[in-house]
Request: fold
Amino acid sequence: MDSQQRVLVTGASSGIGRATTQRLVEQGAKVVGVARRTEKILATGALALRLDVTDSDACGQVVDTAARELGGLDAVVNAAGLTRPGSVRHGNPADWAEMFAVNVTGLLAICQAAIPYLVRSGHGQIINISSMSGHRVLSPRNTVYAATKHAVEAISKGLRKELRDEGVRVTSVAPGYVRDTEIHHSPASPRPGFPAVSTQADRDAAAATGLGLAEFTDLIISILQLPAGVQVQRLEVTSDLQAE
Ligand SMILES: NC(=O)c1ccc[n+]([C@@H]2O[C@H](COP(=O)([O-])OP(=O)(O)OC[C@H]3O[C@@H](n4cnc5c(N)ncnc54)[C@H](OP(=O)(O)O)[C@@H]3O)[C@@H](O)[C@H]2O)c1
Reply:
């Protein structure tokens, strides 16, 4: 990676986005991290900008500000995301709307705003954090989350075609369980009295066999270090214990 690479990371206040932001700063990249809780970004050393990605206009403004502060943009890592439990039968429509607003529409708004800068860079990259749920439905109680991640896969494929001739590479990274992130503290049930997605025992078992956050972050960094002309289109990664 060019040590002066200019990178925007969403979801930079926690988990995968925060660890990626931290590692990029350590490597000398120029980084803007965005999230609603900017106070959690500051310790990474990145420039922190407040953003709720469900506000598409604000996404455009924040991307413009980030590009102005960094003197352009070479890469965007879309790590903002959330999950809410519930089958179609028992789910909560407000949860469905929130998941689509963050995981899909928010990601689209960031990509749209960033594209002109990435094209101008001459070697732009977009990394979209998808999920193993981007190609399967692990549980009928996670259908809508899986639907949002299937959408992220479709968007990544479309963007690759859209931007291929302009030198912008697009990678979807699809992890299994990654340890030490806040997403695992999401509610277990859509509403009181409705079936839970998982028991605490299920959650403990998944955590015990999950992929380390540092190892997963290394993979994201390695994609950002690839020379222009080399493209990882989709990367699926799990711990060996969760391999299918
Ligand atoms: N950890 C896993 O096992 C795993 C597995 C597969 C896929 N993933 C995917 O990896 C990505 C990162 O997840 P994580 O595990 O690192 O989760 P996390 O620790 O919960 O972090 C989620 C990030 O998303 C941000 N975010 C949520 N809603 C937002 C909003 N409305 N506007 C702006 N930012 C928002 C949060 O920031 P604020 O709350 O401060 O705004 C936070 O920084 C997600 O797309 C997730 O689906 C995770």
About this structure: Strands lie at 6-10, 30-35, 47-50, 75-78, 125-129, 169-175, 234-237. DSSP finds six helices and seven strands in the chain. The chain has a mean pLDDT of 95. The pocket of NAP is lined by residues 11-17, 35-37, 51-54, 79-82, 102, 129, 131, 175, 177-178, 181-183 (CB under 6 Å).
